[in-house]
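CORE FACILITY INTAKE
Project code: CF-77B
Contact: R.S. (postdoc)
Sample description: multi-component assembly, two entities in total
Requested service: structural model of the whole complex
Turnaround: standard
Below are the sequence entries exactly as provided by the requester. Do not edit them.
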Amino acid sequence: MIKLVIDCMGGDNSPSVNIEGTLKALEELKDLHVILCGKEDQIAPLLEKYKYDKERVEILDAQDEITCHDSPVEAIATKKESSLVKSLMLLKKDDSVNGLVSIGSTGAIISGGIMKIGRIKGIKRPAFCPILPTMNGGIVGICDSGANVDCSPLFLHQFALMGSLYMERAYGISKPRVALLNIGLEEEKGDILRKETYPLLKEDTSINFVGNMESRDFLSGNYDLVVCDGFAGNVLIKSTEGACLEMLKLLKKTFYSSLKNKLGALILKKDIYKIKDQMDYNNYGGAVLLGVKKTIVKGHGNCKMKSIYHCVKLAYTIEKNNLLAAIEEAINKNELVEE
Amino acid sequence: MIKLVIDCMGGDNSPSVNIEGTLKALEELKDLHVILCGKEDQIAPLLEKYKYDKERVEILDAQDEITCHDSPVEAIATKKESSLVKSLMLLKKDDSVNGLVSIGSTGAIISGGIMKIGRIKGIKRPAFCPILPTMNGGIVGICDSGANVDCSPLFLHQFALMGSLYMERAYGISKPRVALLNIGLEEEKGDILRKETYPLLKEDTSINFVGNMESRDFLSGNYDLVVCDGFAGNVLIKSTEGACLEMLKLLKKTFYSSLKNKLGALILKKDIYKIKDQMDYNNYGGAVLLGVKKTIVKGHGNCKMKSIYHCVKLAYTIEKNNLLAAIEEAINKNELVEE
């Protein structure tokens, strides 16, 4: 049995999408149990609309909510009745609860995960690892994408180990191709951090290190995991998403700019939607906070039901495949504990 | 009179595009003089094809060439007969030569500019500043985009001052909106470098600092200059270019995927080309190495004639508008000399 607590608040369409997506996953995964955390007076009536296995669903009432306007660290410390803090406390105290899924404030989930759940033995810094769709229909993970802005080579080495195990156990990618984000392909390229990290990754035989990656090749499909500090990772992921969105916007504007273009767009519509669909994060699970003692998955705040469904499945898969134990073993076996 | 030395080698289509683009600029700018540097036996016959003012064109023979396969620093030190080194030496020694335009190896141009020409008084680190087209038809500059991977807050402050003056004097943008690349909009966001740079920019009344910018808004048109260290700048610019190119590739693939789509694409063709044209760097001048004692402009290595033409015009405009003197004055007035 895998038991997950679902933070049902904090998203643009919460709690309805949270509930719908969770129930869809519940139907598919027969040994999944869920605890829906949030405003019971909102959750209970919504639940009544669905047919589901009542034996495997509980509600944990939480009358407060953390929003994206709250300061993450402060909110975790003070909003004790919020759905996120109550979910985290349950996750911390109840050994039978394996993981948490939330679409609330990223900052609060990262801060809360680190503060309330704590790090796996040997882990210096937990890392936030989202995935992006690549242009050839695959995926690529980025570790870290924003949890740690100031990093040491040891942190990056640990990100590589955790991220590699994650891509393997969560997505079934055998020997994930791990690359170091850099400004050139040659070994000697980059700033001090990159120059000192490169040999650590190169010498570690437990990861399939394929060398440096330039950011222009991020979506190429040639890499499974990109290792970087949280500052560069955040720049990488947001500029890539930003550029893709701006291109789609420009395209849309072109399609509607004349009657002739509308006709052309109508013909292409189905296949253009396929591109949009390929780029849509709702088709993938969320990001994972790697290096904390329990599984924590974060979905986009404005995601749809389908995305929650994938997030729940992702947390379930991580637990089924014992990712956390594998991380603990790898980190301590590699003696990556001391600086 | 503005006198520029044009490195005619080092590009994919050199020296023919270099010559053609330069002559086009020469025709337009009546007080421009150029020295074409490169293999005379290649340049002279090409020149014969054109009608131009022979009084304003010289050739400086250079039989060697620096390629992108050369180590930049080593090549500058050893390839004394290369077109780039000979151009740089002329620029250094001849007071009447104002600037240099090259489409050769970026690394060699940056190293050569710093080593041979030297820094403007007070400048800690010269910065490489390219521009990108924004989605609303404007442009945005990035300073630094790769010359300095390890930076201090003072370096970034100087980049902001130089870049702001550059956007103003080269592109006529009054009070350029200067933003600090960061992982969030709030003042307290970011790593140590960003946290220490923010107050420097905020307090400097000589620049129009508009706060932090997230990388997803890079092409929005809301900013004129983005300030960052060279590592983050390189990640930003290459991931943005990479994502745009990948999207165009995906689109092209869709257009050719069926007969029906080909028809739709045919209807839209003209306007889709407009998007491609809007994103085409050939329509803009190249990047500039800011903070060295003479004007150095670098164009894309695989650029077309039109791009060289814009690069020559850019170098000319920079000199006409006394950018370098303005930088020297601003840096020393602001007492940004001491760390």
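Facility notes:
- Chain A has a mean pLDDT of 93.
- The two ends of chain A are 38 Å apart (CA to CA).
Invoice: internal transfer
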